[in-house]
Here is the input.
Amino acid sequence: MKRIHLLFAIFIVLILFVGLTNVSAVDSSKWKKITVDGTEFKIPPEYENGDLYNRSYTKDNWSYFTIFSYKNDSHQEYHDFGYALTSNNLKNIQMDHIGNHDVIIMSRYISHWDYADYYIQIWFMCGNVTYQITQNGTNMSENVKELIKTSPKQNLTSQEFYSKFYNYQIKYMKYLDDLEWVNNDIQQFENQKKLNQQEQNDNMYWYLFGYYSNNY
Here is the structure.
């Protein structure tokens, strides 16, 4: 839990030093448009022809490129954000401002037995809905910046935006505390069950031993 509290403290410090991103000129006038959970996005050419669902759009696989909506699901939102902020593969956190959007960027590293790569998670809002973009690599591409810049602006002020995600941290921390309590309770239950089982085994041993002694 100490590591989690430290990361939350770092997150708050970073908020105080949010900079402005100079987004270079990208011509997105001919980009294809898709709608994810009611919000229209312009998709860069390299991410076209992906799989579109109601709440998400994915090109190739989730860590290569994904747009995901948290509309009407605050539980998953605070859980995913809190988990992303505290997981071991987090490499860097950055706060920025792109167009009419505040953004939180987390750089991560994924490793499996046959696969290893870097990717970033970008948290931002369109209207009152939170979206997360996952993009392969270590830095946000200029095309993804343009995608965010041309998406519907957020309704929250910067202060309200960061307050929202700070509250998600608090909720996730409480979730972990509750989970820790439940796990401890379960562990106590399992320990007691083992003791009860051992007692039953001992009783059965002495019963059989007595039966054997009296009859043979």
